[in-house]
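A quick word before the example. In earlier lectures we treated sequence and structure as two separate objects. From today on, think of them as two lines of the same record. Here is Pyridoxamine 5'-phosphate oxidase written that way.
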Amino acid sequence: MARMTSWQEFAEQAPELAESVRARLEAAKHHVLATLRRDGSPRVSGTEVGWRGPDLTMGSMPGARKALDLRRDPRFALHTNPDDGSMAAPDAKIAGRAVEVTGDELRAWVEEAKPPSEDSHLFRLDLTEVTTTGLADDHTHLVIRHWTPAEGLRTFKRT
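And the structure line, produced from the sequence above:
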């Protein structure tokens, strides 16, 4: 099993990358979440993310397929909204495992966030990898920044 880390730990280890990814997540309301269906095939869903204290979180309507997928198999991939396609800002992808928040912490979130239903799901997103892909300043190649808890931050160039 791949090592996981919280958003806060990621931000401490790779602050510039975390700032870039957070900006992409906050630039648009809706992003694309990939989960695994019972048969192992992928399911993509629109989703919103936010921060609760130091954690990257995702809410879901009660009984939504994506929430049921994550309860059964917590692995996920999240792709930021591609915006206008110009690549003016780097594209960001996050993968990891979603941990469902329950009990007092869930009740506190419901009281604070006031989701449409008190039966909503809340997941903390623990990270196994984060990647951004963007154009170099001179537009001659792609710059790929890839981070994992085990290997830290690595930068690649593709022409």
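Notice the following. The helical segments are 7-13, 15-27, 65-72, 103-113. We will return to this example when we discuss secondary structure assignment.
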